[in-house]
Amino acid sequence: MPTEISPSNILLQTSDGPHGVRGTAFFNGPTGCLFPSATAMGATFDVGLMYSVGTVLAAEAKEKGCQVILAPTVCLQRSPLIGRGFEAFGEDPILSGTMASSYVNGTQENGVAVCIKHYAAHDQSTMSIEDSIRVTERTMREMHLLPFQLAVKHSNPWSFMTGYHRINGVHGSEDPWLIEKILREDWGWDGLVMSDWFGTYSTAEAINAGLDLEMPGPSRWRGELLLWAVMCRKVKERTIDARVRNLLNLINKVRPALAYTPDGETGDTLQKREVCRRVASESIVLLKNEKSVLPLDPSTRRTYGLIGPGISLPAISGGGSADLVPHYVSTPLDAITGVVGEESHVTIPGTEQTGYSLEWFHEDPREAADQEAIHTTTTTQAQMYFADSLPANVPSRYWLRVVTTYTAPKTAIMQFGLCVLGKGKLYVNDDEVVDLFSSQPPKTLQTPMFNQASMEVTAEVSVEAGKQYKLTVLLKNESVSAGVGALSAGGLRVGCCEKLDAATALAEAIDLATKVDVPIIVAGLNSDYESEAIDRKSLSLPPAIDELILKVAQANPNTVVVTQSGCPITMPWLDQVSTLVHSWFGGQETGNGIADVLFGKVNPSGRLSLTFPRRLEDTPTFLTFGKGQRDVMYGEGVFLGYRFYEKLLRRPLFYFGYGLSYTTFDYSNLQVNDSIRLEKEGDNFSISVDVQNSGSRDGRETVQIYIQDVDCIFDRPLKELKGFTKVLVKAGQKVTAWITLDKYALSYWNEDLEQWLAEKGTFRVIVGRSADPEDELLSKTIELEEDFVWKGL
């Protein structure tokens, strides 16, 4: 029987969810379906696939007792350095808003709410609570608000999350212009607005501005403070009623999820796996295939050399709230060896053990050995972050002992590492090898647990094959630097890897490359480099990776390079590599997605959702991204991403929208009306173009429509993406692709009129394979007969 829902038993649960539903706990929560990063989702350019993603996320949410998914992220990546840039769909507002709309519809049509974020113009990840951005209204309207606007128009997200920072001097969580004026008045939206976690900074200001819900609980700014604000009439009772009404409306919308009882397969289902694998394979972008090495033929007797850290330890996600423990991980090593007919049983050193035992104590267990543990549990997670997961009976100050057994797979020197949130020590067979208790090294890189943990410290230990070693971590959740009384939830990460001599390892890789037909390198960034709470300082790959790629490619011209990252990276070796694939952060199906593309099971159709620059100095925000004395200037204006590179004639490595296929497509017969009138809401116009598959393989092609405003007196981008569609074209066949455009395609925000203006005059409709001016295939001019001015959606 369904659970009866009454006000007394309602518990509304939220969960992080851009790439999967983690549930309600960072530590020892249930496993989940982990999708590729949002930049990978954006690279599919497939709105139907995003609807399927939303459907899977809704199912996972209900199974985990959650009714609100804190996703999608639709802010644009001003800079490729942004730490959590991988969480958002891309650099273009039309792509981001369109993909988000489908994602939202797939989720909410299955009874689970989304909370679209971070409203608005979220930029830096490093201490964004202190940031104050300066930005024009035109830039906000045309770029940073537009993805949210499109999502409201096409999918009506049931909740919004505000950002941490100030916009022109006012925090987003207490900005009536942002919440009441734009969101509720201009767009007519009537959902719930919540703050980001600890992103509320006031009582009366936030409530009067339209912030319905302070997150997380228990409240710091409401409760007794709100009572005083009402008593002194800083907040009116009718304002409280409005805030409460929005919360009750959200509860009513998610009632089916609140009453959910499973009626079929749950957990790690085949249907979820298939959707995840489709996203992984269809997001992969073929960047170079000059020697036609790809696709590889598994039926041909060839040898493959698998090289690089990503072969057995691929990057499946960025770090922070978007991360979760997946149901499983498909590695490139297992997937590729499976394709070529060999069996592969690979074990990462140490992970063959049953896991870790945890014991909490009141006192130091070394000094009070006879005391009983307050609480005990086990985990298989090497990272243990207790922010929301401490057992109820564990006090605010505690000691924790973690024990596991490591069985050496070979005789070697192993590096055992530890980082802690608090104070800690690592012991191997009761010998202390790492001390993070009395002091900790200064931070030079970002660290786990939202950059709160210490720098990792490693110790070298000689081990013998087959021999077991007892590993013990002792943790006290007390800060080293702040002294006694400065407590945290606590956490730790323990790990190990074989110590390698860099020169020897490189020589071995080069030697292997000369002995095989096709070397395959998988390497790039991971969650240690791209993570919430801190931004990158460089676009470079980790140390020695560039040299590895260059030397292996020089040793064998058939080398296939597979890069992984959520946001752009530099490629100083690009001219020396003939075959290059970018596979993003691939989620739990990383290995299968890569193998599907390399061996031709899937014809690559991914297109870059971000422009890849040649160097950091070329980026539009090079001088304005980072910490200034007070303000962050959005000086690039509307010239973000590809708009900037084309306007300044500054060629990047690869433009937004770029991607190759194993087949070829020819475009012809561009059809659009010569003249257009926009007289009322709902007026639109259609564009059609014929796409011929002139190759020998079936393939999917993304048809991209860009618009250039020829006559506008204001400084506008040379062209902007305004529509796209993805079509399947079988080998030798032709299809007609249709794209419908409306007032959004022809208008810009006019700050004098304080409205959107589609200005009478000439426009160019451009069909392109990417935003690259050299990829413009067909164009036709159209005339807008009269000005059209509008507000709202």
TrEMBL record:
Pathway in which this enzyme or protein is active: Glycan metabolism; cellulose degradation
Catalytic activity reported: Hydrolysis of terminal, non-reducing beta-D-glucosyl residues with release of beta-D-glucose
Pfam families per the UniProt record, alphabetical: Fn3-like (PF14310), Glyco_hydro_3 (PF00933), Glyco_hydro_3_C (PF01915), PA14 (PF07691)
Domain of life: Eukaryota
InterPro entries assigned to the protein according to its UniProt record, in alphabetical order: Cellulose_deg_GH3 (IPR050288), Fn3-like (IPR026891), GH (IPR017853), Glyco_hydro_3_AS (IPR019800), Glyco_hydro_3_C (IPR002772), Glyco_hydro_3_C_sf (IPR036881), Glyco_hydro_3_N (IPR001764), Glyco_hydro_3_N_sf (IPR036962)
GO molecular function: beta-glucosidase activity
Domain PA14: 351-510
Main EC class the enzyme belongs to: hydrolase
SUPFAM superfamilies recorded: (Trans)glycosidases (SSF51445), Beta-D-glucan exohydrolase, C-terminal domain (SSF52279)
Family under the similarity heading: Belongs to the glycosyl hydrolase 3 family.
Its EC number(s): 3.2.1.21
Keywords: Carbohydrate metabolism, Glycoprotein, Glycosidase, Hydrolase, Polysaccharide degradation
Name of the protein described by the UniProt record: beta-glucosidase
GO biological process: glucan catabolic process
